[in-house]
UniProtKB/TrEMBL annotation:
A Pfam family the protein falls into: Abhydrolase_1
Superkingdom of the source species: Bacteria
Family membership: Belongs to the peptidase S33 family.
First and last residue of the signal peptide: 1-23
Swiss-Prot/TrEMBL keywords: Hydrolase, Signal
Molecular function as annotated in GO: hydrolase activity
Protein name as catalogued: Alpha/beta hydrolase
Boundaries of every AB hydrolase-1 domain copy: 97-307
Amino acid sequence: MLTVTASLGVIAAMTLTAGTLVAAPPGAAPHQTISAISWHPCALGPDDAEGRALDEAGVECADVTVPLDYAKPDGRTIAVAIARSRGADGAHHIGSLIINLGGPASPVLDRVPLARAAMGATGERFDLIGMDPRFAGRSTPVDCRWPAYWLPRSAGADRAGFDAMVSLDRSLARGCSRADHELLRHASTAAMARDMDRIREALGEPKISYLGYSQGTYLGAVYTQLFPRRADRMVLDSAIDPALSGTRVLRNTAAGREAGLREWAVWAAERDADYHLGTTAGAVLDTVRRVYAASARRPLAVGPYAVDDTLVPALLTAPLTDDTENEELAEVVGVLTRAAGGVPVQPTEEMSATLASLLRGAGSATHTAQTAILCGDAAVPRDPEVYWRDIQRHRAASPLFEPLARTITPCAFWPRPPAVRPVAVHNGVPALIVQAEKDVNSQLPGAQALHRTLTGSRMIVLEGARTHGVYLFRQAGCVDDAVNAYLGSGRLPATDLTCAE
């Protein structure tokens, strides 16, 4: 199984280059013909276990050179790393399919063999292409060397928590002043979409198919807008509203997370003999609220970590993402409850990974790329008081999750403004949108907004499921069969579908 990470403008002018229709920013010069890809083994040295595993799986790797700034196609260049697993069904070969796991900067090369195994016979009709987004994974990197991270930290229960986030975000942005400003300035989903098209051209494909999850659905939608004639079979899973680019995508998540927490509380109450969190859903929710209030008064000691009110919502959000993680969420709340009572506790393995990321800078390079893309996708207010007033207006609706959804981010202090305006998505390119009904990260209203925006799309909803990433992840036969049928035939379902597990 794969792993999902989680977490407007003018349509580009069409320019003929060497007999091929390609997209370029308004006013940009045509780019030069792209040379053939030079494939090589994936292992970069004897200590590269990931590359060695790719080689053993028969995957080949390459770097595609792309412009840093597509408005200056003959200027500075960067490398975008790709990996290819060739499909075995040459008699029924369809083309290449690019996979994106969202993030918006999640490396994907090491997931290509897993995708090959998960897609079965349908996948064998495609060459599966993993693309590490610009500045992430094995592509040209940018790293601000952050000692901590901001997402998914909350603005907390009161002004002290908010001020702590302001201080953290300002410090993180200041740390990026030592990084390469030009790289940071040209991190955006629009640039990633143009990178995708350069890869399509380098592969020699007249069209490209695409499987994108979470933030990757926005990348796919932007690609259909910029390159409508180059989009083949497009699957957009766990979709977001394309009008909410950048950090704005976080703003409408509180209601769904609150509903998910209430649903989980019913489950936990039915198992009070196991977890001792409360015999009713209301009592379980009161337990969570007491933990949150205690963390605001004094950070909770959880192993080596000090967990305050900016961190508690983050620890809840990770297992809340999937209803198969109900037990993990109950264990997390149990750990925090005992910590609030002064009992020495250790974090669960998942808690420890989350806290190491947020408090110790684990994964700094990926976090830098993710933040740079979010900041590059849309300008945000620069005055912290704008965020504070917004949080205060909405806090009552969900004291736990509204300060998380509306928290201030490093984008408020980012060293450079976005280089390009966001791409306004609205077209009739065929696409298949897949959505879990109760997804708390990419929520159903956002997927419905994408469905309306992509007027040629069809939508499949997995009824009753709280999960993030459906096709290949959930093993829901109705969904997988419908997606495979579309990928294999190129024909969308005649109508929208509702699937039951």
